[in-house]
Amino acid sequence: MNNSEQLDYLPVLKTQRLLLRKICLSDAEDMFEYACDPEVAKYTIWAAHQSLEHSKRFVNKIIEFYNTHQLTVWGIVDTNGKFIGTCGFGDLQLIDAKAELGYALSRKYWGKGYMTEAVTAAIDFGFSNMPLNRIEARCEPENIASVRVLEKVGMKYEGLLRQHIYSKGTYHDMKIYSILKQEWSDTKTTVNAEI
């Protein structure tokens, strides 16, 4: 399956408490509700959204990436139908059979296992339905909650990338984590038992 075919196929993923689906323009208002929070944006590469228009432009960019087959990212929706975050793969490198995992979640849902649940579904989809051998994720060392998510889903710490990205006017160190396809089947059973 080539990159174009793979990205046309972005099914809805269901977990115990969540629905992961394509993002659409009607999600912009809910996105703004969490993306305007400086605490949510603190460890992301994007600045806190300043207006609903900002969130609409952000969503339109995601839709454009869907249409040009550059992004595999889901909107995270709770059992009440509320759009509460995003989770998915960027930087798809199908020649090397790897992708980078990224995510963001409304602060109202922090500390309740929602992101672990969403990340587990995304990783499982990546290894089961995409030609991936490796999934990696980066986070700032101070982002303890993100570190916990990555460790809970079985990703292994590989090292510190010093001054790896320039964002919001300064350089940031990044921890890098990864999981390989061969490791996932053993890890998945443990992760699902803990959710």
Automatic annotation (TrEMBL):
The Gene Ontology terms for molecular function here are:
protein-N-terminal-alanine acetyltransferase activity
SUPFAM superfamilies in alphabetical order = Acyl-CoA N-acyltransferases (Nat)
Keyword line: Transferase
N-acetyltransferase domain residues: 18-177
Q: Which GO terms of the cellular component aspect does the record hold?
A: cytoplasm
- According to UniProt, the name of this protein is GCN5-related N-acetyltransferase
What is the species listed in this Swiss-Prot or TrEMBL entry? Crinalium epipsammum PCC 9333
